[in-house]
Design a protein that fits this description.
Strand order of the largest sheet of chain A: 1-3-2
Structural class of chain A: mainly alpha
Strand content of chain A: 5-15%
Helix content of chain A: 55-70%
Protein name (chains A, B): MerR family transcriptional regulator
Order of helices and strands of chain A: EHHEEHHHHHH
Organism (chains A, B): Parasedimentitalea maritima
Number of domains of chain A: 2
InterPro entries (chains A, B): DNA-bd_dom_put_sf, MerR-type_HTH_dom, MerR_fam
Oligomer: homodimer
Number of helices of chain A: 8
Number of strands of chain A: 3
Keywords (chains A, B): DNA-binding
Largest sheet of chain A: 3 strands, antiparallel
Radius of gyration of chain A: 21 Å
Chain lengths: ~140, ~140
DNA sequence: CTGCAACTTGAAGTTAGCTTGAGGTCAACA
DNA sequence: TGTTGACCTCAAGCTAACTTCAAGTTGCAG
């Protein structure tokens, strides 16, 4: 395990140093030592950051992402939680596939009004049950 | 086209009435009339809202979503933009697939440290180039 | 005709996720 | 040995996306 300087981590991960410091206050990452005042990181931090980045793009809050990282004693619960998160991601993927198709359709369909195009109508019919769930489950 | 009351739209779409009013100020939706003071919506608003919801879950800002809805004169540019958005969504999907696999792996893999598990290492190796792009392209 | 629940507006407040600024410290190079 | 530039801390500031609040209005049930 070699140590990397924060500026290097920033460069490699695409996160700004200020974001890395912020993540540290949230307990999402830790620096393993200091060189003077400067944070040095174990290179596994890059995996963590990649997961954080992907987690964010999956719509998880930093708090949720943090929970996933807690490898606590009761790891059976933890495994369950991870699978649940994976299920959520897959659900999300299904929704995005509909969106991609809808976008391409709207781009290509020559119909005046999409609300009257049967192809579009059919696509949208699949969407609501997927699309409204997030909001309900919040808070 | 039948008109629906805002409370009904809220119920059907999963968005709160306050959010609907907010979207109206941003020009994302319009109410087609009023009953007294109360907003009434054309039922195509539900499609729009489903698209908004999906767009958000794809990580687009309300402003970006609004742009997509602008069906302006130069529709060739518009088509191009829509396809670009679709490309972004598909890129996003690829990233989420890696995340889902990573989550399931971490849940099931018995290795002490994931950073030493070759399967995990291999997955993560695919991720960075996908995961860091969003941040760079912002602003 | 009278309530009153459910809407209205505009302004202010909230939360997440960072970034920025002021003032300080330090490693490394000339 | 001194200077400099990149880091440090802590507090305050910022943006997006809403929500909440206070004060007013209105459709409709009784």
């Amino acid at each position: 395990m070699k140590s990397i300087d924060i500026s290097e981590v920033a460069k490699l991960s695409g996160f700004k140093a200020s974001a890395l410091r912020y993540y540290e206050t949230l307990g999402l990452i830790q620096s393993d030592s200091r060189k003077g005042l400067r944070r040095q990181y174990d290179d596994t931090v890059l995996d963590r950051l990649a997961l954080i980045s992907m987690g964010q793009s999956a719509g998880f809050s930093l708090e949720e992402i943090g929970e996933v990282f807690q490898k606590d004693e009761h790891f059976e619960i933890d495994r369950q939680r991870l699978h649940t998160k994976a299920d959520e991601v897959e659900q999300h993927i299904r929704q995005l596939r509909i969106l991609a198709r809808a976008l391409r359709h709207v781009a290509d369909c020559t119909a005046q009004s999409h609300s009257e195009c049967p192809t579009f109508r059919k696509m949208m019919a699949e969407a609501p049950k997927l699309a409204t769930r997030q909001k309900q489950s919040e808070h």
